[in-house]
């Protein structure tokens, strides 16, 4: 994980990275406020991605349990006794899933909260939102992947019918093409 101001080994410019960023962002903010044009000076950092070693083995083929597809629900929404959720509650669902490192979905999302509008489901929150959590792990009993999606319903959420949606990618073997899958929880009401 990249943390500004952390130990020198964790940052591009060493222990003074945070101070350097603050200095440069201050210059940018002042120039923008004054409407000045900014010229970039100095070299860009070298791209060392081709020479970096990784001790983390990549995923090499996943499969769900027999009779189950990726995206199927393992644990669906647990409804409160009152039958609906309130703002501040945290509905969650767990899906059978493949390792998220097959495709980081950089132009997409692993998790979404969708609200029913008419007859269509419209994405209202995704894993960019601080209220939505995506957690992946290997199930200890079966050694299959599980993705849990939790949504802390924010105060600003509109009352309505929602569902949790999971998106993922997998491959059967290390050389097979990537295939994509999706799954959805049961619908639930938020008031």
Automatic annotation (TrEMBL):
<dbReference type="GO" id="GO:0005783">
    <property type="term" value="C:endoplasmic reticulum"/>
</dbReference>
<keyword id="KW-0378">Hydrolase</keyword>
<dbReference type="GO" id="GO:0042759">
    <property type="term" value="P:long-chain fatty acid biosynthetic process"/>
</dbReference>
<feature type="domain" description="Neutral/alkaline non-lysosomal ceramidase C-terminal">
    <location>
        <begin position="25"/>
        <end position="190"/>
    </location>
</feature>
<dbReference type="InterPro" id="IPR006823">
    <property type="entry name" value="Ceramidase_alk"/>
</dbReference>
<keyword id="KW-0964">Secreted</keyword>
<dbReference type="GO" id="GO:0046514">
    <property type="term" value="P:ceramide catabolic process"/>
</dbReference>
<comment type="similarity">
    <text>Belongs to the neutral ceramidase family.</text>
</comment>
<dbReference type="InterPro" id="IPR031331">
    <property type="entry name" value="NEUT/ALK_ceramidase_C"/>
</dbReference>
<dbReference type="GO" id="GO:0046512">
    <property type="term" value="P:sphingosine biosynthetic process"/>
</dbReference>
<keyword id="KW-0443">Lipid metabolism</keyword>
<keyword id="KW-0732">Signal</keyword>
<keyword id="KW-0333">Golgi apparatus</keyword>
<keyword id="KW-0256">Endoplasmic reticulum</keyword>
<dbReference type="GO" id="GO:0005794">
    <property type="term" value="C:Golgi apparatus"/>
</dbReference>
<dbReference type="GO" id="GO:0016020">
    <property type="term" value="C:membrane"/>
</dbReference>
<dbReference type="GO" id="GO:0005576">
    <property type="term" value="C:extracellular region"/>
</dbReference>
<keyword id="KW-0325">Glycoprotein</keyword>
<dbReference type="InterPro" id="IPR038445">
    <property type="entry name" value="NCDase_C_sf"/>
</dbReference>
<dbReference type="Pfam" id="PF17048">
    <property type="entry name" value="Ceramidse_alk_C"/>
</dbReference>
<protein>
    <recommendedName>
        <fullName>ceramidase</fullName>
        <ecNumber>3.5.1.23</ecNumber>
    </recommendedName>
</protein>
<keyword id="KW-0746">Sphingolipid metabolism</keyword>
<dbReference type="GO" id="GO:0034599">
    <property type="term" value="P:cellular response to oxidative stress"/>
</dbReference>
<dbReference type="GO" id="GO:0017040">
    <property type="term" value="F:N-acylsphingosine amidohydrolase activity"/>
</dbReference>
